[in-house]
């Protein structure tokens, strides 16, 4: 069957992706679809923005809302409490802790405000029940453990809030682990710090899945050696396709799979392939982002003005060499070739920089299902990729808690 399907895939993926057959759309809507890394909680705190309303990615640059989730057949996923890396100081920890708790509250408030459409999920088994009720599934995760400061027991507070997946580092080294992209380009600990190892023990005790995305390869080595439950890469890619520090090589892919882990494929363009430099655009965007950071509490009027500036940057300095849906699928198909459909999933980094030409927001998600079927994967395989694998890892963390 798989060989037959491969033989029918005569068109390049980019052409296939233009039209999703009705039968594939029906199948996609039937599957339980989860994305393991949604940065959409950042949108929840934008002035005048509502998850209940449909938005346009080309106007306000957001990628996930309830109408688009329904249209694109996204049942839900892991909604991230992301905290930018700041100073590794008592004051830095305090500010990060307060920020992270408030971001978690925003996720819980989203659910509480619309119980007809959203429901908090706390266990792997919850996903099927929530999807069957026609609601969106809201698992919670932490991207960057920096807000925990030097008190790993604070993780229990986030667990009680609903967090079931947690990473260690982000763009820079922190108190727990080395980052894959620290500006120094030099390791600090050579993997997990002693405090990071204590944090891992606490994750295993509570039943929280360890996430190695953004951390260095040596951190992944430590996690695979020390974790009592499987490890997840919530949004990563393949180094064999594009040699970037955020991606992992085939040896690590195989080691991850051997311990029951899963790589969830990223759609963050800078990690998919090299692009032609566009210095004028980069300079303009850097200035815009700096202004956004300065205006942390934007008024609706200020946000409208910033969006207009962003649109003007796009007009003056268009990004003409953006990675495409083909580039995204190249990473996914490579991972599937190396470790098979039991160890690959989807974590596109929506609202956190993800999105490519041909897959701009979650409305385009059926294209992934179509491409996987065209590549010869069965309906059962596709269901594993969309949610079965990540739920299996979550169930393993639940089963291993306290041991």
From TrEMBL:
- Which biological processes are named by the entry's GO terms? proteolysis
* A matching Pfam family: Peptidase_M19
List the signal peptide residues.
Answer: 1-17
Q: What is the lineage of its organism?
A: Bacteria, Pseudomonadati, Pseudomonadota, Alphaproteobacteria, Sphingomonadales
Keyword annotations: Signal
Give the matching PANTHER family: DIPEPTIDASE (PTHR10443:SF12), MICROSOMAL DIPEPTIDASE (PTHR10443)
What InterPro entries does UniProt report for this protein, alphabetically? Metal_Hydrolase, Pept_M19
Enumerate the PROSITE patterns for this protein: RENAL_DIPEPTIDASE_2
Q: What is this protein called?
A: Peptidase M19
Molecular function via GO: metallodipeptidase activity
Write out the transmembrane intervals: none
Q: Is Signal a UniProt keyword of this protein?
A: yes
Q: Does the keyword Signal apply?
A: yes
């Amino acid at each position: 069957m798989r060989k037959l399907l491969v033989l029918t895939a005569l068109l390049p993926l980019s052409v296939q992706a233009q039209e999703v057959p009705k039968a594939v759309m029906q199948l996609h809507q039937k599957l339980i679809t989860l994305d393991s890394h949604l940065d959409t909680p950042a949108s929840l705190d934008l002035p005048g923005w509502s998850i209940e309303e449909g938005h346009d990615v080309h106007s306000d640059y957001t990628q996930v809302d309830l109408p688009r989730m329904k249209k694109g057949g996204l049942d839900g996923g892991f909604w991230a409490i992301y905290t930018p890396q700041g100073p590794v100081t008592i004051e830095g920890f305090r500010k990060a802790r307060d920020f992270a708790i408030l971001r978690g509250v925003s996720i819980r408030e989203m659910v509480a405000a619309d119980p007809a459409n959203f429901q908090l999920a706390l266990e792997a088994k919850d996903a099927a029940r929530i999807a069957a009720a026609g609601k969106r599934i809201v698992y919670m995760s932490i991207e960057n453990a920096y807000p925990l400061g030097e008190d790993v027991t604070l993780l229990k507070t986030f667990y009680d809030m609903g967090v079931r997946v947690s990473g260690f580092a982000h763009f820079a080294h922190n108190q727990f682990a080395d980052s894959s992209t620290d500006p120094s380009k030099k390791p600090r600990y050579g993997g997990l710090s002693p405090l990071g190892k204590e944090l891992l023990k606490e994750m295993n005790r509570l039943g929280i899945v360890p996430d190695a995305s953004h951390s260095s390869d040596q951190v992944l080595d430590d996690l695979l050696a020390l974790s009592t439950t499987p490890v997840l890469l919530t949004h990563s890619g393949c180094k064999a396709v594009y040699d970037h520090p955020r991606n992992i090589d085939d040896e690590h892919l195989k080691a991850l799979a051997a311990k029951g882990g899963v790589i969830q494929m990223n759609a963050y363009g800078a990690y998919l392939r090299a692009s032609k430099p566009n210095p004028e655009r980069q300079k303009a965007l850097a200035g815009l982002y700096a202004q956004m950071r300065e205006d942390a509490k934007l008024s609706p009027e200020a946000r409208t003005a910033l969006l207009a500036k962003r649109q003007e940057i796009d007009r003056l300095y268009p990004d003409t060499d953006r990675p495409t849906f083909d580039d995204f699928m190249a990473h996914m198909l490579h991972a599937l070739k190396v470790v098979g459909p039991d160890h690959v999933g989807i974590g596109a980094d929506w609202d956190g920089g993800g999105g490519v030409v041909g897959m701009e927001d979650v409305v385009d998600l059926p294209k992934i299902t179509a491409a996987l079927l065209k590549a010869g994967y069965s309906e059962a395989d596709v269901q594993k990729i969309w949610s079965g694998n990540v739920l299996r890892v979550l169930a393993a963390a639940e089963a291993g808690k306290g041991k």
